[in-house]
Amino acid sequence: MRAICYFTPLWSILVLSAFAVNNNFVSEHEQLQKFELLALQKERVGKTFTYDLTKKKACNKTAITYLGEVKTNTGKCYKLLNSFFVFSAASTCHGTSNIKIYDTENQFIGNYRVDMPDELPVKIIKKKFLSWNATKKCDLRKGFSVNFEKGPPNSFFLPCSKKDGNQYSLSTE
Question: Torsions phi, psi of 118, nearest 5?
Fold first, then answer.
């Protein structure tokens, strides 16, 4: 019983610091959602908006790019954003890269979480195709596109080289 008393103050500090980190993430995530909505409202195709949500010198900045609209064969339109969200996690920074899909009323439809920011698309072609450019490591992305004529695909394979690439799935959460 005595050992528990010694660890209680330490345990309390750990629990409280975990709540502080979580609250910071929630605040940064709420800011991200506001900035994404702002990018959707401005509708400036190809414009990247950058924000320092972590306020830490060693961290990248959050970047949101409005890609424009895609239109399905049935006439339904979707707005697409690239979102590179950099957030605080204790004393370090973490990031997530997503292709986000919204309806014309700016309501969230879903997203594709990609591994790295260089896996985000660069533009929309003919209001139907989401398109990528090649990178130094991934030459097969040159000219690669995903067709949205039938709506957002449930998944797609993003090639990198002859030997590899990544499969990404649509999430509605």
Answer: -75, 0
Q: Determine phi and psi for 170, rounding to 5 degrees.
A: -75, 130
- Exposure of 72 by Cβ count < 10 A (0-12 exposed, 13-18 middle, 19+ buried)? middle
Average pLDDT over residues 105-129: 96
Q: Is there a contact between 90 and 76 (Cβ–Cβ < 8 Å)? A: no
- Tell me the DSSP string of 72-97: -TTS-EEEEEEEEEEEEETTEEEEEE
The CA-CA-CA angle for residues 28, 29, 35, to 5°, reads: 90
* CB 69 within 8 Å of CB 124: yes
Comparing C-alpha atoms, which of 73, 76, 49, 43 is closest to residue 63? 49
d(CA 65, CA 46): 6
10 pLDDT more than 60: no
Q: Is the pLDDT of residue 90 over 70?
A: yes
Q: Amino acid identity, residue 56?
A: K
Neighbours of 169 (CB within 10 A): 11
Residues present in the chain in total? 173
118's tokens? 């260089």
The SS3 assignment for 127 reads coil
Give the pairing type, strands 62-71 and 48-51: antiparallel
